[in-house]
Fold this sequence. Notes:
This protein has six helices and 28 strands.
Amino acid sequence: MLRNGCFQEIEMIQCxxxxxxxxxxxxxxxxxxxxxxxxxxxxxxxxxxxxSSSAPVTPSVYLLDSYIxxxxxxxTSASLNGVNLPEDFPGExxxxxxxxxxxxxxxxxxxxxxxxxxxGGVLGVRDETVVMPSPAIYPAPAAITPASFxxxxxxxxxxxxxxxxxAPGGGxxxxxxxxxxxxxxxxxxxxxxxxxxxxxxxxxxxxxxNSEYEVELVFANANFDFGHVAPGFGLKANSIAGxxxxxxMTFTTGVEQSCSDVGFAGVVxxxxxxxxxxxxxxxxxxxxGFDAFVDTEIGGIMAASVIGGAMEQAMVQYLPGSWDAxxxxxxxxxxxxxxxxxxxxxxxxxxxxxxxVRDQGITIGVDDYPAVPYLVGTGYSDLQAYDTTHDLTIExxxxxxxxxxxxxxxxxxxxxxxxxxxxLPSNTTSILLAAGDLVQSADxxxxxxxxxxxxxxGDDCPGFGTGSTLLGGFVSATTIFFTTQSDAVCTPDLNGDxxxxxxxxxxxxxxxxxxxxxxxxxxxxxxxxxxxxxxxxEFSAGCP
Length: 544
């Protein structure tokens, strides 16, 4: 990427029409008479693009750069060896001509002596002879160090950024550095620096999030002199003539880091049981598993994963703001431990949302699975064919001493929805299912989780924040499957008012007379005495 648009009278590093803002005068006069040009330059440049951590080897562009800096109105046209210099800004005449090879550049501008010409303004007709150093020696290009290149890519805009480069070799007599925002063309830094300086610290206050910047390092071999008396450009005109190797590197800062608290996160190992009888604790887990989860604000995360053990596992968002990385099941604890060992530090990584890039370590200690939860008394039987129009309290065994949290979940398997998920105090032994919480004629799965995982606060940013709550430990979970009672149907209540009376008899007789299907009480497809008999029998029996 090449830059344009610098103001020579106030900046040491100059710009070229093709774009590179590079090379500049050592001395800028405090006051320049209008009878003199302010500054002029002829330079041949090798432009290198450093696009990786490796040092650049071959120039991407060979450039002839020239400019004449005057005051507005000093001239109406300018040229170099007959090549027109356009007036980019009032009083600033510049040209930058790119070539694919050194041979093409030298063929277009051969030799070491060049003529610069002005006319048409306050200064009148002026001609200046510019002599380039001979022989033409281009310094070896600067190489930005691998560490600096890597650090710059996606750099955190809230942190300082150190840019380091290789020391200049022989033939270099000046070094220039420009750093600027590509979109706005605003400078972060733009000046000559000491010859032996090999680093520059960009302070965080100079960087913006999600912005592209360009670093340009110039190793120059040039003559710095003054112009000649009129009809030359004048003794107070600064003259620059020579060769330079320019190394350009672009980088884009990361999204602004949010240090808001993430919320609730955990990493646990699970032993899953199934209860199939009243007041009986399951003896052996039917499956083992690993789970990592994050609950946070909606839009806070766009991607998440858990790192540790045998693999990095992606997390999925199953509800807005809720992410989970539940593993496939393992038939034995040894299989689970082989891939997700205990006494191990795991890391949950999040990125892409309003919370930015964050990493939080959570440690699972030595094995400490709680005692198995199970329903006591007739709780298991009570759930089977449960009439959801009534309240039901279910009770479970007293939790073991290491239990820190209890979670109870109920899923409607028929509708494929979660009915509720509640966190309960660690000494809780029952829960109330209120009338109407569940629906009739549906299959359900209830899960009671005993968790042994003490709470801990998150780490400061870029961790999950000290206001976040973390869990790392073990879970014993028991599942109970059940089907709720079917809806009771009162067929002789033909008007649907919940009562059996004369109005239902009247409704039946009217339907029978009209041969309405609702009057075919024996379902034989005919309307006769047998339907009347069937209706009267059900009417007499009443309804639940």
